Amino acid sequence: MNLARFPRVRLAHLPTPLEPLPRLSALLGGPEIWIKRDDCTGLSTGGNKTRKLEFLMAEAEAQGADIVLTQGATQSNHARQTAAAAARMGMDCHILLEDRTGYEHDNYRHNGNVLLDHLHGATMEHRDAGLDMNAEMEAVAETFRADGRNAYTIPGGGSNPTGALGYVNCALELMSQFATEGLVVDHVVHATGSAGTQAGLITGFGAMHAQIPLLGIGVRAPKDKQEANVFALAEKTADKLGCPGAVARGDVVANCDYVGPGYGLPAEDTLEAIDLFARTEAILLDPVYSAKGAAGLIDLIRKGRFRAGERVVFLHTGGAIGLTGYTHCFDMPE
Ligand SMILES: *Cc1c(COP(=O)(O)O)cnc(C)c1O
User: Fold this and answer.
1) How far apart are CA 252 and CA 96, in angstroms?
2) Which residue of 58, 64, 228, 330 lies most exposed, with the fewest beta carbons within 10 A?
3) Is this model's pTM higher than 0.85 or not?
4) Is 322 close to ligand 1, i.e. is its CB under 6 Å away?
5) Over the stretch 116-130, which tens digit does the pLDDT of each residue have?
6) CA gap 265, 126 in Å, rounded
């Protein structure tokens, strides 16, 4: 595996910190919990999509693109990081936003990621829930091309083999940090959605024979579907890297018991995770992804699936700016 072969633009502050969470670990009374701070990638409040965009935007540049298109939910962190990356590279950005939650709150529709999309100069259009959003985006891209623009399209979440290279890079970074710190890690846990993060990590771990179990906590799809999506993307990513067969189907594990009422809709344990991380460690989680991942981590510690004597790394994938779009979910005094 030789990641340097692939074109890449530098957009992220790397390496992101790897830090212990002593107060949260003591409170839960289970394993030693560490956090990998991919919420600190630096681009427009950070998050996991920035690593993927380093490879995707390099491809866009190589193709001579003057506009990038992508799609996501209204409060999409991916759309916001894409808008920021396009601004950095002097490209235009056009975003299709899908109304997946039905929330009518003003903050949800105009604050958080949506405000930042606008500030980075992206143009936006909206779609009702349930359409094939990648197909909608390709159709809009054709209208730009008919106007003479060179449009580069990025699938939802930046999850294709090019984007997943960003998380192969994260796997390399983690293994290097574990070696430097002399840290023996028993599990890595993170939120999984469009699958690129988990596919990239598991491909990188597989290619390095890391033998560290990776658990994705689902935010949308049921377990079978999520694991199949991750595995399919991991196989393509391994092929692209020149390491076919690096990932076995059994390496891909997702737990989708913490989705709650649905994508973008926090459950009670989602909000508890936000509260716990904020009060014990001053770490801000987001209600759509990272807090569902953390809710899974917390519950699995309480159930003894992760135990005292073990060491678990929680990969924080970012998204906290979305909290300002979800103010209606929190009880605040007048
Ligand atoms: C997109 C996102 C994820 C999920 O990553 P995928 O690569 O789509 O699986 C997790 N956390 C946050 C904050 C995200 O924005």
Assistant:
1) 30
2) 64
3) yes
4) no
5) 999 999 999 999 999
6) 19
Neighbours of 51 (CB within 10 A): 32
- Expressed in angstroms and rounded, the spacing between residue 195 Cα and the centre of ligand 1 is 8
Instruction: List, for the chain, all residue ranges whose pLDDT scores fall below the cut of 70.
Output: none
289 C-alpha vs ligand 1 centroid, how far in Å? 6
Distance in Å, CA 49 to ligand 1 centroid: 7
What are the tens digits of pLDDT across the range 166-210?
A: 999 999 999 999 999 999 999 999 999 999 999 999 999 999 999
CB of 81 sitting under 6 A from ligand 1 = no
| Helix (H/G/I), strand (E/B), else coil: 94 | strand
| Alpha-carbon span 306 to 159, nearest angstrom | 29
Q: Give the atom of ligand 1 at the shortest distance from the alpha carbon of 190.
A: 10
Contact 20, 10 (CB under 8 A): no
How many degrees, rounded to 5, is the angle at CA 16 between CA 273 and CA 183? Answer: 80
